[in-house]
Amino acid sequence: MDKDIARHVLRVTFHSWGLITDLIPLLKQHCTPEEYESFKKAIGAISGDFSTEMLKTVFNAFPELEKEVDDKIKKYGKLI
After folding, report:
1. What is residue 78's predicted lDDT score, i.e. its pLDDT?
2. What b/e sequence results for 28-44 when a residue is b if at least 16 CB atoms lie within 10 Å of its CB, and e otherwise?
3. pLDDT of 10-65, one tens digit each?
4. What is the pLDDT of residue 39?
5. Residue 31 and residue 29: Cα distance in Å, rounded?
6. What are the φ and ψ backbone dihedral angles of 77, each rounded to 5 degrees?
7. Do residues 79 and 11 make contact, with C-beta atoms less than 8 angstroms apart?
8. What count of Cα atoms within 13 Å lies in the side-chain half-sphere of residue 47?
9. Rounded distance, CA 76 to CA 18, Å?
10. How far apart are CA 27 and CA 42, in angstroms?
């Protein structure tokens, strides 16, 4: 993988993680408490494993991108 692809993987990972976690308020509002808890646990497990593995793979290949990501999040509040 080259660095441009690595950056794209990072953006897609952060975007996907955001979409999944954005479901939580909607589910809380429209599901039973039992359904909500089940979804919340599933989202936590999926988003944690997914983002950790994707980020680890990219940062192992390009350690310098970790600082780049951190700097952008500090500056903009998200990865852009």
Report:
1. 84
2. eeeeeeeebeebbeebe
3. 999 999 888 998 999 999 999 999 999 999 999 988 887 878 889 999 999 999 99
4. 95
5. 6
6. 80, 0
7. yes
8. 17
9. 15
10. 12
Q: How many helices (H) and strands (E) does the chain have?
A: 4, 0
| Short-list 62, 55, 56, 43, CA closest to 1 | 62
Contact in structure between 15 and 7 (CB atoms under 8 Å): no
Residue 23 CB partners (closer than 8 Å, separation 6+): 39, 43
CB-CB contact of 68 with 58 (8 Å): no
Half-sphere exposure of 27 (CA within 13 A, CB side): 17
Q: Distance between alpha carbon 71 and the CA centroid of its chain, in Å?
A: 16
**C-alpha distances in Å from residue 78, one per residue of 10, 14, 52, 74:** 11, 8, 17, 8
| DSSP letter (8 states) at residue 2 | -
The amino acid occupying position 33 is P
